[in-house]
Amino acid sequence: MRSKAIRLDGFVGRARILSALFVLVAIFLSVRLYFIQIVHGEDYRERAASQYVATSVDTEDRASILFSEKDGSLVAAAIMQTGWRVAIVPKEITDAEAAYQKLSSVAAIDRERFFASVAKKEDPYEEVAFRLNDQEASGIRKEKIPGVLLVQDKWRAYPAGVLGAHALGFVGYQGDKKVGVYGLERFYESTLSKTSSGLYVNPFAEIFANLGAALSDDPQGNRGNVITSIEPQVQARLDEVLDDVMGAYSPNISAGIVMDPKSGEIVAMAVRPTFDPNTFNTVSDPSIFTNPLVENVYEMGSIMKPLTVAAGIDAGAIAPHTTYNDRGCIEKSGKTICNYDLKARGVVSMQEVLNQSLNTGVSFIVDKMGQESFGDYVHAYGFGEKTNIDLPNEARGIIRAIERGYDVDYASASFGQGIAMTALEMIRGLSSLANDGVLPSPRIVRSIRLESGIVRDIEVPEGPRVLKSETVQTVSNMLVKVYDDALLGGILKQDRYSIAAKTGTAQIAIPGGSGYYKDRWLHSFFGYFPAHEPRFIVFLMAVEPKGAQFASATLARPFSDLSKFLINYYEIPPDR
What we know:
alpha+beta, Beta-lactamase, 20 helices, 21% strand
């Protein structure tokens, strides 16, 4: 009896082991089927489609970049487009004219290129047309032309054209290899680049590789689709606003950013003049590809004044009701500093310093708080440091002037002259006023959708606190009064929404340190709303606009139009 029991127990144990093995095999096959049908399904379909035609040796492959609509829906921004090339074997083309007529009746074929290729009888393979769609390829197939081949093709396509071009960048040749050369395409090259070898990788290795990617601390280091925070409708509206500025004032550059001041997510980023990444090879001036919001530094002018006022209040040196005697001009280090109109206002408060944008007033604040303390706040705002935005070639601000110890340099810096920064640095510093005194970390990419289908968010560090909450509330109230009462006489005030805003007009420095141009200006404008629970902060600039000296003329109304669009589009509830 005991031996029978032992044999029975052994049978049950083996049955359990076999059952477990069957379950493991079933799980493995299910996972493998998922990767074949879902993850690599499109790749296999393309491979199947190419079995009856020649294949291209340099067909590229690359993950997608996606815009995010306000409801979370994803919109293609950069994708791989699939189609066909037409190639010929020259020695097999016996009647070139007849072959050309048949081909050109179906698709656009360059006659000169075709006949030049036919003439190369010693070459075994010549490509004569590119980027044909399936319908055109089917038509050529039906013609059954001797010596004509269809070659499967892939290329990078940007369905929205110029929309978000400076953020996206494009793919181009670096030597004999196609890589991202500007924008997100370059910054996320290792994430976006793919190879076709994934179809044939060891299935166990693929499963564990994807498991590792899902658990990785750095999703950016794994291949997948890049999901941005750029909202296509907001991006399109910003484009329209900048086009209007270009049409009205013909600046060398107009540019803008719309950002969530709390998360640092950039909702729109645009530059004019711009380009279409689908046809970047037709651009004659490659400087258009650079992003001046990220790569150039500027003396920003009076949009620095709210940060100087905030520093003075935060340090306890002034309050909104603090007054000083404005004489119109002052002497600093043997040099004269004046208000924009050279006029004296007499005894005025700090509110009027912002309302009337008085250079002498913010210089007074620096004197009250002390130069060292002011310099500490300039550093705390992040000026002179990169924001570490996920875009290539980010420049660093130049703030050496406040480290020399000259009175005139500190005075000039208080109203945004003599120190220079990128637009990204500026909007990050100003966002401390819209984010309860904390600097955000500007970002364009929200998450990575891994090849396994798992979506991993990009984690960004929380920025440092640079201002007290009470300071931010006070300065926001002051900037609301600027927008409601002082800016263009108060005509832009919105009765049901509080908007905190300020203009900036800066002289442009002559290269080589020879002073400033008398007739060239940089105009800037920033605003956030609703003022005490901000959803967005907007930054606009125009470099050397024509026909208007002050930013209130060139950028105030464009900002107003954009803010109204954002309020309506996001259905932001009124705050007053």
